[in-house]
Amino acid sequence: MGVKVISDSTCDLSQELVERYNIDIIPLHVVLGEDEFLDGVTVTPEQLYAWSDAHKSTPKTSALSIDLAMDAMKPALDRGDEVVSFAISSEMSTTANVMRMAAKELGASDRVFVVDSRNLSTGVGIQAIIAAELAQQGKPGAEIVEYLKGVTPRVRTSFVVDVLTYLYRGGRCGGLAALAGSALHLHPRIGVADGVMSPGKKYRGHIDKFVMAYAKDMEKELLHADPRRIFITHSGGDAETVVPMVMDYLKSLNHFEEILVTRAGSVISSHCGPGTLGLLFLDADEE
């Protein structure tokens, strides 16, 4: 009996990484007007941005369907394996509950371990990779989930936003803060703690200036991070142009064994918009 690791599509792991760690992905839903799409399957962030700009509206997103969750779990269960399944924070989506319902429908609640990541994007992906590494070592599902209880609070997720329009339209930050930020050309740092997003320091200037300022402000945290890996996760747009600058800065710290660059999928991009970039890693405390 082995363990199959599954995650919803908000983990934003690249195809190379899901293949390397044998992680299956279940897509969430993205709704553009009257049309519904599957994140990472039938819609791209570029299509999403074009639709949003044309309609002056924010795409809607919804949790994965129970049918897709069951379809993802069933092959592993039929092989006699256990499943460890990751979901975006339950404060942001009902996905974790859908996964639990899928396991119940399959009569496998005792073999499916649903992990509420209390996070988003590669903050979920970090946890899924750790679970996959433990599964490759032959650890059982219960032991993996128990280990993850000490990992989840150590995930550090933050990002800086170029345009506040998407956060404003989607209700992800206060309307007054969004309007004031737009008027003053501010670019807020958004952090994730206890499963929810909250604003932090605000930056000014062009994207190459504020992104580097954000990264350098984190130097103390970065040097205290688990050195195994760090993610540079971005949502396209002008953020792509500054990724090499951030990569060079992280390399100059001589701290991380692996610096991974990933692109945010359509669900995450629908809320943060183009030009967003984040650094996501695991704090080394309590290792």
Count of extended strands: 13
The biggest sheet, with number of strands, parallel, antiparallel or mixed sense and barrel status, is: 6 strands, mixed
Please give the count of helices: 12
Please write the string of helix (H) and strand (E) elements: EHEEEHEHEHEHHEHHEEHHEHEHE
Unreliable stretches? none
Q: Helical amount among residues, as a percent range? A: 40-55%
**C-alpha Rg, in Å?**
19 Å
Q: Distance between termini? A: 28 Å
Mean of residue pLDDT values: 92
The best one-word shape is: globular
Strand order of the largest sheet: 10-9-8-13-11-12
% residues in beta strands: 25-35%
Helix/strand-derived category reads alpha/beta
Fold and architecture overview:
This protein is an alpha/beta fold. Helices cover 41% and strands 26% of the residues. The protein has helices at residues 15-20, 45-55, 66-78, 95-105, 122-136, 141-151, 165-169, 175-183, 207-217, 219-223, 239-252, 266-272, and strands at 3-8, 23-26, 29-32, 35-38, 60-62, 82-87, 112-116, 155-160, 187-193, 196-203, 225-234, 259-263, 277-283. The protein has a 6-stranded mixed sheet, sandwiched between helices. The longest helix has 15 residues, at 122-136.
Keywords:
287 residues, alpha/beta, 26% strand, 6-stranded mixed sheet
